[in-house]
Amino acid sequence: MNVLFLCTGNSCRSILGEATFNHLAPPGWQAMSAGSKPTGKVHPRSLALLEREGISTEGYFSKSWNDLPAIPDIVLSVCGNAANETCPAYLGPALRSHWGVEDPAHAEGSDEEIDAAFMKAYRILRYRIEQFLRLPLNELQQDRGRLKTELDRIGTLLPSSLTGESA
């Protein structure tokens, strides 16, 4: 099953999603990422964060959705709602869900504050990916309606470390 993490620039959030998903995914599931208007480079803070988390960064690059290596079965848009950001809509038969995350590339402040924005985006994506991978995936592959419902639900979740609630 091919999962596409989609955003506009394909330099931060979608790369974080792709690399994290591939790090955690079971055999037969693979992520890719793309942008509708790719920047052409992966943000160095995204790469540094992934390396600190023990996730390989080899082979990840910013690319257009016109250059995908496979046809996605699932498309997860990760654009946030800040700064009037428009999230691209992938056209095709894939199951689509929105997992909005604020773009850390637009974070301002000290190095610590900017790093914190990248870590927040990573934590949200990792938490959602972990929730996704806990689903009965073999069963849900046969029930697109239920899978869509679950993906949409997961796209609203935040880790307790960001909500202040206890787990």
UniProtKB/TrEMBL annotation:
Q: Does the keyword Nuclease apply?
A: no
Q: What UniProt keywords are attached to this protein's entry?
A: Arsenical resistance
| Pfam families, alphabetized | LMWPc
The Phosphotyrosine protein phosphatase I domain extends over 1-135
GO terms of biological process kind: response to arsenic-containing substance
Query: What SMART domains does the entry give?
Result: LMWPc
User: Is Magnesium found in the keyword set?
Assistant: no
Q: Which domain of life is it from?
A: Bacteria
- SUPFAM superfamilies with a match to the protein in the record: Phosphotyrosine protein phosphatases I (SSF52788)
Concerning PANTHER family, the annotation shows: ARSENATE REDUCTASE
Q: What is this protein called?
A: Protein-tyrosine-phosphatase
Write down the species: Methylomicrobium album BG8
